[in-house]
Amino acid sequence: MEDNTIILLLKTDASQGLYEATKKYGGLVKGICIKILHNRVEDIEECIADTFVSLWKNVNSIDFNKGALKGYIASIARNTAINRYNKLKREQTDYIQNNDFVSEEALEDEIARKSDSVILQELISNMGEPDKEIFIRRFFLFERVKDIANRLQLTIKTVDNKLFRGKQKLKKQLIERGITL
Question: How far apart are CA 71 and CA 42, in angstroms?
Answer without folding.
Answer: 24
